[in-house]
Amino acid sequence: MEDNYREIGGAFTRIHDSKLWKSRGYRTWTEYLKKRHGFTRQRAHQLMKAAAAFASTTVDVPKTERAARKRLSGNPSKPKTTWEEALANFKDSFKETTRRWKAEYPADYPEMLRQLNLHIDEFVWAESEEAEEQEVTP
What we know:
Number of domains: 2
Strand content: under 5%
Order of helices and strands: HHHHHHH
């Protein structure tokens, strides 16, 4: 179960939020968890929290719910990724993508890079403008 905590936690979240457990004849969420799945409310909510925290990413996702919980609690077994590490990971990923493009689309590669640079410039400019506005706002 540990390696699929995101699936289980996500399912519990959907069941909880839509109150599907009531349609199965259970009086409470806790009763549903205990009788139907053998989980305590606390354990189900641990899975739900871990699933929600890492649902929208595929990068550096903890393999187990226990590892996810440690990272979320601020007591990780390894330090959280710093922004320098995140930037290095992005650069490595970017290099790999551009190498693949060059191999797969040699004729289009120069134009693809030009377009990519335009998009990056637009994004950086927009983010810079937003950051400046936030600094000025009291």
